Backbone:
DNA sequence: TGGAGGTGGTTACACGTGTAAGTGACTCGT
DNA sequence: ACGAGTCACTTACACGTGTAACCACCTCCA
C-alpha cells in the first residue's frame, strides 16, 4: 500500500487507480465495484452502496483499463484499418474519414496501421496481435487466403477487402478501377482521338489505383496508349509539357482531376491548345475540375459512403454467416465538359 | 482440451492459440516459450529447444496477445490522436498523415479517436481507458488542466496540444492562426484595400482555424472586416457572388486557397474583376493557387513536419522531464501573386 | 568425495477485470 | 419456532503474458 494519506496533487502520480482502490475507499468488495460501475441489473445492490462506490470512483478519478477488460472478455471492439502512407486524393480521403467517423459512432475503436517495410506475413501478424474484431484491408498489400486465415484465427469476425478482386475467405468489395480507365479511353476515342497518353503518378502508394486505370485504358481497341510518369509538382508538369510535341498525342487521361488540372495548366502555358490540340480527361469528378477553364471532363465514380461500409462491417461482425461474399461497387460514368 | 487431433482446416476456428498451446506442442513449459519467442538473452536455452519452440509456434500460427502483454508490462505503445471528423484542408491532412506514418516507424500504435457527441470529460475518460503512452490533442476540443491530469494519472507520459494557446501540464505546440489573418489583412491594406470580407467556412470542425484567422484580420486597424459565410460548393459561391455588389468590399481573405479559388471563380463568372474590383487572398499556399489565373496570392504557413512532431513525442515519452513546455510554431509570410 | 559453479530448464506470481457461485443476515408464512 | 425465500453482498477463478526465483543435473577441481 504505497499511497497512504493521498496528497491532492502528488508531484509524481504513482499509479493509475484500479477498481481495487475504489473498492478499498468505498469499503466494499471489488466485485461490487464492478457491478455498480457496469450497471449490472442481474445483481441487486442497494442505492446507498451504489452512491458510495460512484463517489469513490469519482474521487480517485478511476478509469477502467481497456486491455484488462478485453482480455477478460475475450474479444475487442477494434477495427483495424491498414492504410498506405499517402493521402491518395480527396475522394478517397473523404471516404476514409467518413468511415472512421461512422465506425466510432458504432462504438468501434479504429486503429490505423501502416505496414511499414514489413512483408505481408509479418504485417498481418502484427495486426493479429491486436485481436481486432474486424479488418478492413484497403488493398495496399493484397491479402493472401493464408493471411485471412491468420486474422480469423486471431479472432477477427470479419475481414473485408476493398480492391480489384476478391480474396478467398474474406468479404470483398470489388471495385473495378479498370473500368474508369476504359470509360475515359472510350470517351476520348468517341471524340476522335487515337493516340492517347495516360498519366501515372510518380508518387508511391497510388499503384493500386493507377495500375488498373492504365490497364483499363489499354482494353479500348481504337486507341494506342502511352504511359506518362508525372509527379505532383509544377516542375514535373512543365517538363512533360516541354517535350509534348515529340510525343505526338491527341488525347490524355490523367488518373485524377488534380493531376489533370496540373497538366492542363502546363500544356496551356506551353502553347498547346485544349481541347483543339489535345483532349484532357480527369477522374473522380472533383470540384476543382469545374473551376478551371476550359472546364475539365472527368469520370465520376460511385464511392460507397463511409456510413454504408461501417454498417456493413457492423453486420458482418454480429452475424458473420448472413453476409454476401462479394459486393460489386461498379458505377462509373463519363462526365463530358469542355476539355474534350 | 477441446481440440484433440487438430484437423488442418476446421470449419469453425476454435480459439486463437496461446503460448500455452505452443508449450504443450513443443513439450516445454510456457516460460520457455516466452523466453525463446522474445529472444531473452539473460536466460540460457539450448539451440534444439529453441528450434522446437519456434517450429511449434509456426505450426499453430501463434501470435501473442497485445492486450495481455501490455497488461503485464504495465504500459502500452499507443499514441492517441483525437481527430475531428473533417479533413480540414490538404495542408493539415498531409501533416496528419506524415505524423501517423512517422509514429508507426517509431513503433507506436496510432489510435484515432473522435470525441463524438461526448462532453470533454467523458471523451477524456474514454481516451484514458486505452492507457495511451502519449496523447496528441489537435485542438478540436480544448483540454482543461484537469483533463490533462486525468490522462497523466492513467499513464500518459506525454500530452501534447496543438492549438492557439498553452494548457497547464501539457507540452504545447502553440501555433497562432491569428497571425495568418493579420498578415493577410495587412497585405490587403498595403494594396490600398480598406473594406475587406473574411470568408468563414460553413463546414463544421474548422472553427479552430477559422475563428482565430478572422480575429487576426480584425486586429489590423486600417481595414474594416465583414465576415462571409461560405460552403464549399459552387452554389454557395455563386450565391455569394450574386450579392457581391451590395456588400461594397474591395478585398477578401478566404481562409484557405481552396475556398479562395472557389470564390474567385464565382466572382469572375459574375463579372467582378480580380484584382481590379476586388483583391483576393488565400492561405496555406496550396498548389492549386498557382494553377489558376490570375494566380492567387496567399499566406504561407510553416507547418511542422510530421517526422519532427513524432520525434518530439518520442523524446517526451522517454524523458518526460527534459522537455520544453512550449514550442512556438510561428512562421507565416505573405506570398503576393496576381490576385491582389 | 564433496561442494562450487554452470547449464537448461520449471514453478509461481502479478497485471486489472468480469462474473458464476457461494454466504450470511433478515423476513415471512405456517 | 423453523425451513423457505429474498436481499446484499463477497469469494474465487479465468483471461494470456513476462519474469524473478527456484531446482535438478552435470562438470570440474581440491
Residues:
Amino acid at each position: 500500500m504505497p499511497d497512504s494519506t493521498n496528497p491532492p496533487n502528488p508531484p509524481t502520480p504513482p499509479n493509475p487507480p484500479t477498481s481495487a482502490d475504489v473498492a478499498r475507499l468505498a469499503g466494499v468488495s471489488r466485485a461490487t465495484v464492478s457491478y455498480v460501475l457496469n450497471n449490472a441489473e442481474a445483481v441487486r445492490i442497494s442505492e446507498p452502496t451504489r452512491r458510495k462506490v460512484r463517489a469513490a470512483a469519482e474521487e480517485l478519478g478511476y478509469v477502467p483499463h481497456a486491455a484488462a477488460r478485453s482480455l477478460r472478455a475475450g474479444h475487442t471492439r477494434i477495427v483495424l484499418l491498414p492504410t498506405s502512407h499517402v493521402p491518395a486524393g480527396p475522394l478517397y480521403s473523404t471516404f476514409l474519414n467518413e468511415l472512421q467517423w461512422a465506425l466510432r459512432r458504432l462504438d468501434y475503436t479504429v486503429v490505423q496501421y501502416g505496414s511499414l517495410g514489413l512483408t505481408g506475413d509479418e504485417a498481418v501478424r502484427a495486426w493479429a496481435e491486436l485481436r481486432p474484431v474486424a479488418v478492413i484491408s484497403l488493398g495496399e498489400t493484397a491479402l493472401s487466403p493464408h493471411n485471412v486465415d491468420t486474422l480469423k484465427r486471431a479472432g477477427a469476425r470479419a475481414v473485408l477487402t476493398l480492391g480489384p478482386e476478391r480474396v478467398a475467405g474474406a468479404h470483398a468489395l470489388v471495385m473495378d478501377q479498370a473500368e474508369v480507365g476504359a470509360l475515359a479511353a472510350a470517351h476520348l476515342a468517341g471524340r476522335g482521338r487515337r493516340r492517347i497518353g495516360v498519366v501515372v503518378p510518380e508518387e508511391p502508394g497510388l499503384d493500386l489505383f493507377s495500375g488498373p486505370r492504365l490497364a483499363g485504358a489499354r482494353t479500348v481497341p481504337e486507341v494506342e496508349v502511352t504511359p506518362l510518369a508525372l509527379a505532383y509538382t509544377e516542375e514535373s508538369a512543365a517538363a512533360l509539357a516541354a517535350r509534348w510535341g515529340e510525343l505526338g498525342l491527341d488525347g490524355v487521361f490523367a488518373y485524377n482531376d488534380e493531376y489533370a488540372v496540373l497538366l492542363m495548366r502546363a500544356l496551356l502555358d506551353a502553347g498547346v491548345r485544349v481541347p483543339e490540340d489535345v483532349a484532357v480527361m480527369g477522374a473522380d469528378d472533383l470540384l476543382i475540375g469545374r473551376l478551371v477553364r476550359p472546364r475539365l471532363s472527368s469520370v465520376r465514380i460511385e464511392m460507397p459512403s463511409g456510413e454504408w461500409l461501417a454498417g456493413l462491417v457492423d453486420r458482418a461482425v454480429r452475424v458473420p454467416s448472413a453476409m454476401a461474399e462479394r459486393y460489386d461497387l461498379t458505377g462509373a460514368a463519363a462526365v463530358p465538359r469542355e476539355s474534350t
User: Anything to note?
Assistant: The first strand of chain A starts at residue 78 and ends at 81. Chain A has 13 helices and twelve strands. Residues 67 and 73 of chain A are 10 Å apart (CA to CA).
